[in-house]
Design goal:
CATH topology: Rossmann fold
Strand content: 15-25%
Largest sheet: 7 strands, mixed
Distance between the termini: 9 Å
Number of strands: 7
Number of domains: 1
CATH architecture: 3-Layer(aba) Sandwich
Shape: globular
Number of helices: 3
Helix content: 25-40%
Radius of gyration: 15 Å
CATH class: Alpha Beta
Order of helices and strands: EHEHEEHEEE
Structural class: alpha/beta
């Protein structure tokens, strides 16, 4: 993703591969800024190890969409739908779906509903899917010694 596609309030900090986020607040703020870019996007695939900040990033996206209810990880529920906002948000967590057929079936069902109401669907643990999702944005979060690294790739 090129620097010009990111709001100026997000400082480019590396060699065209990503950004450094120093703390939880920076991760949430990045999500807020990213929400304006994702207005016409339907699908985001969010990868990273446990505790890397995936749900925190989604909290920021939700804040940018003016979601007022608490955004929580749907690890056990599998999905959370936030409908009372300027744009609906579907948050899926496929961590517990180890069988690709189950993950694919669940995703396709959720995608159909999300598309009907023009919701943004953000998926944690998309590696559980075996579907070809070329239209998706890909975001990767990981740790580094001073905080988190985030990489964003548009379709």
């Amino acid at each position: 993703m090129e620097e010009r596609n990111i709001p100026k309030s997000i400082k480019w900090q590396s060699n065209e591969s990503g950004w450094k986020l120093d703390d939880l607040e920076a991760t949430i703020n990045f999500g807020v800024q990213l929400s304006s870019i994702l207005q016409n996007t339907s699908l985001v695939l969010l990868e990273g190890p446990l505790g890397a900040g995936k749900t925190s990033l989604i909290k920021g996206i939700g804040k940018g969409f003016e979601i007022t209810e608490p955004i929580t990880s749907p690890t056990f529920a599998l999905s959370q739908h936030y409908l009372n906002s300027k744009r609906p948000l579907f948050h899926l967590d496929l961590y517990r779906l180890e069988e690709p057929a189950s993950a694919n079936e669940f995703f396709l069902s959720e995608e159909e509903e999300a598309n009907q109401i023009n919701a943004l669907m953000v998926i944690e643990w998309p590696s559980r899917l075996t579907l070809n999702l070329k239209e998706a944005w890909n975001i990767k979060l990981d740790y580094y010694s001073g905080g988190r690294l985030i990489q964003v790739q548009s379709p």
